[in-house]
Fold this protein.
Amino acid sequence: MKAQRIFRVLLPVERLFGWRDAFVLFTLAAVLWIGASLAASAPHVIHGPEITLSPAALPYYALLSLRRVIAAYILSLLFTLVYGRLAAYNRSAERVLLPLLDVLQSVPILSFLPVVLLALAAFLPERLAAELASVVLIFTSQVWNLTFAWYQALTTVPGDLREASAVFGFGGWLRFRTLELPFAANSLIWNSVMSFAGGWFFLMAAEMFSVSGRDFRLPGLGSYLQQAAHRGDTAALCWGLGTLVLIIVALDQLLWRPLIAWADRFRLDTVAGADTPSSWFYDIISRSQIGRWFFHSLLGGLEERVDRLLIRRALQPAKAAAARSGRLPLQAATLIIALGIAYAALRALHMLSTVSPAQWQSVAVGLGATLGRVGLALVLALAWTIPVGVAIGTSPRIAAWLQPLVQIAASVPATALFPALLLLLLRVPGGINIAAVVLMLLGTQWYLLFNVIAGASAIPQDLKHTVALIGLSRADRWRTLVLPALLPYIITGAITASGGAWNASIVAEYVVFGGKRISTTGVGALISHATEGGDYALLLAATLSMVLTVVTINRLLWRRLYRLAETRYKLE
């Protein structure tokens, strides 16, 4: 009977595709066509600044890179809070926003970047275009796991807490500040750690790239590492990686550990845990007179003023006349945008009509090959991230040692180490295929690990004490408590990990090494080949095919598992 109930929850959730999905895909095709058209107007000769490999330049380069990562993270957090809340609470918006989120997180940004970059370079100064493109690429490596985590938290808030907020008459702002944000704090913080790691992971691609003979580069730690790898300067590569490790350790000690210790107060516990997260920096700040003045007097007063302002605005009657007067211009602008999207989509369809049947066949074969590698990488990631994540999330002592190591391992750009790994694996049969799976694994396993850590650390202590008093075996404890509590977090991590694996296929299946181009069958290799050759029709076909595949998998599997987690595995 239990299996039948789960089966009924999984199957009839929603239609596979609808008109909203078609609208999102046509919009994406239109944007790609517009970018390709603007790319033709970009300057033909572009040379970025010289990157020195002197260790003395590393502090300056590190500050520039840290500034880009922080700017991208702020954009990601703002996008997450607005987008995820709309998708969670507005059913009409959810029908559009969730398909759009599926599409956005599956778009291979490393293939989309050349179009965006050349389009920006057509009407902006080269340096500004490169800076904006860099922040956009880092943003796309940070935002999707945050958005999915926020949406998952909002849809699994316990019903009794919602009822309590309704009884007290909390409006939108007070409910957000006192219920939703505290409930999601643990998940958001751990996914923020993952977002920063993802930003560092794509730093080399974000700061130094060549498109159709044009050399875009920005001074920064990523370009320093890529320049050192190109020149084979082992000493410079070690200096760059050492600087990156120092930044990661400093952020762990001065930012993430204090935030994790602070967020422990928001656990759904009725009893205190034996071990709680601690941070020496948090203890110093919270116990110092300056820290108390800053948090209680300055921030506390600011918080009260913001509360009063937003509550007063929420109670004011709506300006109906102003709304009616502004409705007509809004409708006119919507019509103009829709007509523009329709025209660009038709031009994109015309571009797709130039793709030969042989190319479509290669796209289909490549999709099958990449799908197999993505599935294998996801299975391997699940096999080790669940036990390790539970160990870190439930034991602060283990977390004190492993958390910095995990952050370092997740943040080191695998693309910097990939040539050496490929050199070893090419000597064995199927070496390029093994290397592709390994690179996908290196780029995606951390999404799962950090979400499992967040889920394990959120399990209430009273439930742990209950299963201990009952005397359940380790296997029964995992079956009845750990895995059900982790399911929403595993689903969130799996969605973002699989999307990251599809993105990583672009650099994993097509490699330029030692002056040679080494590739294997896969849609990522097709996208890289089309990008290098400027074949925008094939690039559009392969990109849209990848997006359709990922959206189909999300709709058939992950979305339905989300519904199962919402209905059966909420902490009530």
Remarks:
- The chain has two domains: 55-268+356-568, 280-313.
- Residues 55-268+356-568 form a domain with the MetI-like fold fold (CATH 1.10.3720.10).
- Confidence is low (pLDDT under 50) at residues 1-14, 42-46, 318-326.
- The first strand starts at residue 208 and ends at 211.
